[in-house]
Design goal:
It contains five helices and no strands. The chain has 135 residues and is mainly alpha-helical. It has one domain. Helix 1 packs across helix 2.
Length: 135
């Protein structure tokens, strides 16, 4: 079930990236990046809720202190925990061996921009909501 939803979202994301006139030559990278950004927002929101309200900051050990500047630490933590793993999984599950061609044929009904736009817009709402969750 979750795998099916993931494939439908990725097919919709591939369509969004392929139809973009700006990124038509690097659509594989941009489609994976679009999905990664939205999924990272969801995971970050869940982390903030769990860490701040359910476990009373017991997950703070996951925050790596790489730089002395706080905003760089946040960006590097996002890259290490979210962007790199999600982009790698997308490559292995979708783009390795041109599996996306089969998925586009299999999930033809999802080959539109609607599903991904909803997924991304809801992620933006969660991102705005997470600004108010920080203590």
């Amino acid at each position: 079930m979750i795998k099916r939803i993931y494939y439908k979202l990725m097919v919709s994301t591939i369509n969004t990236a392929q139809k973009s006139s700006v990124y038509y030559d690097i659509w594989k990278y941009t489609s994976s990046l679009y999905f990664t950004i939205a999924t990272s927002i969801y995971i970050l929101f869940m982390y903030l809720v769990i860490n701040n309200y359910l476990l009373d900051h017991q997950l703070d050990f996951l925050k790596l202190k790489i730089s002395t500047i706080g905003k760089y630490n946040f960006i590097l933590n996002m890259a290490i925990f979210f962007f790199i793993p999600i982009m790698s999984i997308n490559y292995l599950l979708i783009f390795k061996g041109n599996k996306y061609k089969y998925l586009i044929k299999e999930y033809k009904e999802s080959y539109n921009k609607k599903l991904f736009v909803w997924y991304f817009m809801i992620a933006l709402v969660f991102m705005c909501g997470s600004l108010f969750l920080k203590k």
